[in-house]
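Section 5.1 Outputs to date
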Amino acid sequence: MKISDRLLRRTTCLMGTGGMFLLIPMMVLTTCDVIARAFWHKPIMGTMELSSYMLVLFVFSGLAYTQQVKGHVRVTFLLSRLSKRWRCLLEVIAYLLCLFITAMLVWQGWVVGVQERAVSDMLRIPQRPFRLFLPLAALLLATEFLLDLIGALRGLRGRE
């Protein structure tokens, strides 16, 4: 399990880093579009489409990494007042719910993504790869939740 755990952590980290590097071109493109609109009254064609596609990749590529580093919102104000056993029990319940939701995202994201045939209006970019990115990102997130669930179960049994 250690090798697969390391591989998952590395894949999640690389995916989050790749998404992070999309932020700079998105900012540059948007800035250039604003400048072109303001000074020459000519927007850069396809800026909204490219920005929306880059935003999808940016957001979804960081979900699993954020879970890996425990960056998602938690209610530590209430959890800190509970015993370790109760905290672990609530974490198990929360991770089970999160696994259910991400399983639905993987399933429905795959169904919708495979059926997608549309292309963007202006640049004619196929939408299928961007729709199929959601189930991939959700699968990585679900795997992170599964690892955290295993850790919470170990804590519940008193092994961690």
